[in-house]
Fold:
Amino acid sequence: MKTLATLGLLGALAATAVAQTPSYPDRPVKVVVGFAAGGPSDIVARSFADFAGKAFKQPFVVENKPGANAVLATEAVAAAKADGLTLLAAATNHTMIPALYAGRIKFDAAKSFNPVCTLASSATVLVVGPSLPVKTWPEFLARIRENPKGATFATPGQGSSPHLATETFQKLTGTKLVHVPYKGAAPAVTDLIGGQVDMSFATVGSVLPHIKSGKLIPIAVASRQRSALLPQVPTFEEAGLKGFVVDTWYGLMAPAGTPTEILRSLEREAAAFGKTPEVRERLEAAGLEPQSTCGDAFAKQIAQELVSNTKLAQELGLKAE
Structure:
């Protein structure tokens, strides 16, 4: 009888211990963004933070840590404790950093992180401002080939996704353009609208309001299919430039070594994120589309992009300043 009583007591104590074990998360979670507030990465991070905060019943707090093409933010998260309480709001540029900053970063873009899920994506669209008065692909191509000095193109910075997209474009078309790098998408778009630069490859999310207002003219989108947000704009494939696809993803990563059960909890909510009408509406208003590639599939995508982007940067001789 004493044995049974003892077993019963141990069972009760074990059950109590399980019940008292804090579930994830048991305190606020920090989501670090490598860019300033207001851009696509920030919008996705804040949208997910709102969603996750309600789902987990703990605040998810966004911290903007801009600098060096998101290197500062990425280094901070790579060095954080692997407890799921510090996460990285990453984007496509994550897979460009190793080639551009070789020997100057304190993390491994693949090994230092556990990829959780992609959250959203944005097509890349070629837009022109008032200094380049064209409306169609044939007009655009003829105009830049006629310019002996080379048309100017704006990017959010050296080694950014739009920069690599434009370098690839020049290689495919045999054209020569003049790079004008800015410190972010906002000032690049401002000068494009003002006529200080001629063109830009930009994420739909960063230029959609200006396209709708008529301040910028879309020429073509670098996607496999037309963007649902710009259904009237042809793809480069339709325009006649084959194989030019440049999509931008925005996703969530955790420091390497984060417990599997925490990763699965985050994956579950990240996968549910884009399925709610309010989230879809919020993302689409910013020119973004929900997307969910999780776990091993996301890790495989990152590995493939690291190889292709490193090869491209080497071919073009690109290095961040």
